[in-house]
Write a structure and sequence with these properties.
The chain is an alpha/beta fold. The radius of gyration is 18 Å and the shape is globular. About 2% of the residues have low confidence. It has a single domain, classed as NAD(P)-binding Rossmann-like Domain (Rossmann fold, 3-Layer(aba) Sandwich). A seven-stranded parallel beta sheet has the order 3-2-1-4-5-6-7, sandwiched between helices. Helix 3 runs parallel beside helix 4 and helix 6 crosses helix 7. Helix content is 42%, strand content 15%. Bound molecules: NADP nicotinamide-adenine-dinucleotide phosphate. NADP nicotinamide-adenine-dinucleotide phosphate (NAP) binds next to helix 1 and helix 6.
């Protein structure tokens, strides 16, 4: 498959690239990137990041940064902003941002939070803050840092993919952290899209995908009906592989039948030209 937005000399940043959907995004996108492209992979698990990196074509310059994106300093998140800027700059090395044809950032890292409790039992500020630090604040801040490096003066074609969820637009019992986090994160990227019409922004909802996250939902979801639904999806063989959903993402990026900022789901077949 050829995807114009992922061809040529690209700077690609993927968060949560150590496993699951992020690992697949990295491996699949990497096959499309031109010689001299730079790939930066972020997650906490250093060894797993290295494993992802080792699978990529040798024609790419691959960098990994082991980082806990949920950690905020007392100094109102300034620490992580500087840290992220430093990581991106190191990956760029001596190259200037203008040497790239495309700059692509995939905000994939995410967590479910505690899925055992109903909304009314979520009464701890610290837990809410930690959840939002990773799932809402870190993509917003990382995106800002990325756009500072690849600003409109650089004339680099920019693509932002936010990995969202059906839970961002549909409430699910026992998933108040996850649903509110996905909704807030998606709206951030919708606002960003209308403020930056020259940037291509996609909120991609990957469907139910066989990863650690799905397993947690099947085993630990507090709401019994929801837990049964996730187990039924698995039993019926409807859970998607990471490859299936990322092939679909690449098809959506290729066809460009969405408006910047749109929420596009794996199952939104009507959005695609045949
Ligand atoms: N699986 C599904 O059915 C499904 C459906 C809809 C949307 N999604 C979304 O898809 C994205 C990927 O999820 P997944 O299913 O692939 O889950 P996963 O296997 O649990 O992967 C989550 C990724 O996020 C990273 N991450 C988690 N906490 C982090 C932190 N504090 N700092 C840095 N990185 C962190 C993890 O890396 P480390 O542990 O190495 O840090 C891992 O690479 C998420 O945004 C999720 O909400 C998934």
């Amino acid at each position: 498959m050829s995807v114009p937005l992922l061809s040529g000399k690209v700077f690609l940043l993927v968060t949560g690239a150590s496993q699951g959907i992020g690992k697949q995004i990295t491996e699949s996108f990497a096959t499309l990137l031109g010689n001299g492209s730079v790939v930066l992979l972020i997650a906490r698990n250093k060894n797993a990041l290295k494993e992802t990196a080792q699978k990529l074509p040798k024609s790419l310059s691959v960098h990994t940064a082991s980082m806990d994106l949920s950690v905020a300093t007392a100094d109102e998140l300034k620490g992580p902003v500087l840290l992220l800027a430093d990581v991106v700059c190191k990956a760029l090395g001596s190259e200037s941002a203008t040497q790239f044809e495309k700059a692509v950032i995939v905000h994939n890292a995410g967590s479910l939070g505690d899925v055992s409790k109903p909304a009314n039992d979520m009464k701890d500020f610290e837990i809410w803050r930690n959840y939002y630090n990773l799932n809402v604040f870190s993509p917003a801040i990382l995106n800002g840092v990325f756009m500072e490096l690849f600003n409109k003066e650089t004339k680099v074609t920019r693509l932002v993919v936010n990995i969202t969820s059906l839970c961002g637009i549909q409430p699910c019992k026992s998933l108040a952290y996850y649903c509110t986090g996905k909704a807030a994160r998606e709206m951030f990227f919708k606002v960003f899209a209308i403020e930056n019409p020259q940037v291509n922004v996609l909120n991609y909802s990957p469907g139910p995908v066989e990863t650690d996250m799905q397993e947690v939902l099947r085993n630990n979801l507090g709401d019994a009906d929801g837990k049964k639904t996730f187990n039924d999806i698995k039993a019926s063989g409807s859970v998607l592989t990471t490859e299936q959903t990322i092939n679909r993402l690449m098809e959506i990026l290729k066809l460009q039948n969405y408006k910047s900022g749109d929420h596009v789901d794996y199952y939104d077949k009507q959005d695609l030209k045949q």
